[in-house]
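Re: pyridoxal-5'-phosphate structure - here you go.
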Amino acid sequence: MLYLDHAATTPLRPEARAAMAPLLGDQFGNPSGVHATARQAKNAIEEARECIAQAIGATHPLEIVFTGGGTEADNLAVLGSSWPERGGIVATAVEHAAVLESARFAEKNGQPVSVVEVDRLGRVSPLDVAAAVDERTAVVSVMMANNETGVVQPVAEIAELVRSLGSRAVIHTDAVQAFASLSVVAGPASPDLISVSAHKIGGPQGVGFLYVRDGVQLEPVVHGGGQELGRRSGTHNVAAIVGLGAAVAATVADRDGYRERVGAARDRFESELRSMVEIQVTSGDAERLASHSHLRFPGVAAETLLVRLDLAGVAAAAGAACHSGAIETSHVLDAMGIAPGVAAESIRFSFGRDDDASSGAAAARIVGDVVRGLS
Ligand code: PLP
């Protein structure tokens, strides 16, 4: 089985599994209590928080808010920062649905929303983002890298430009896909809010965090018992949070090596495949994550190809992650101006931490053979 769908989810890292094991056993406490078992759980959470804060250079561990994953972190960032004064939201057209649907929800409640278009290669222009910002804008949300194409956005430049306009908007970046390969550092020049999800970096599913710069006010989206300083209520998923901490530490420690390995896998995959069949890289020569290979196979239906690849032992993806088993037309490819017929011939392969040039070559041989059989 060649698993080339790491952008959808990744296998659990041994470090995360080992760190989680005691919390799934006799260390089962609810961290909100006062007795020793509760304190043990509380300590485990605070250790994970400190470890993550250190890994991203946050000035204080309490700048890390644990959430139930990347989707919830994005909701908290977009809705939480704009709600207090019903401010405006600026987001790019290629954001994950967690951001775009949050913005749509806010729009239904009367908040102004501006969606900034991207170019043919999926890149947003900092000037276009700046032009969409006005005095009502409360949050600007631009992802670090796209989940489908892997295209990297100029987030630092956008943050600098928006701030130079004197805008009081907070800057949010969804770093869910980027975290595995790109340096994510919280600091004066960084976004004010950064979303990260555990399961894209070898942690468990259903947990993530939002970095919230000290001083940024957020209205919670999950109300209840006031955990996470009132920013995210609900009993903590202690084992998952500890797994997230271990995954973040391992990811940051191995980032350079990871980038080299997946880059070698992806580049070898594309070069060998190109020698066998016709391919087009969806994002052309735009900067993209080393792990992502979003390709068009002219004349080959992606849906059929995915099924044939699955039968041949290769896991890949088409369109956005399919929620119901059916492949939906990708709003990302649509925003890039890619015709539906072309999008329907496009597939995403995404490499992971155990890949290297030889697995890239092996994948190319199988994919090339399957595509030839369909052409
Ligand atoms: N943002 C991006 C860019 C993603 O790729 C994903 C997951 O596909 C999410 C947010 C949502 O994260 P989660 O699956 O943890 O809810």
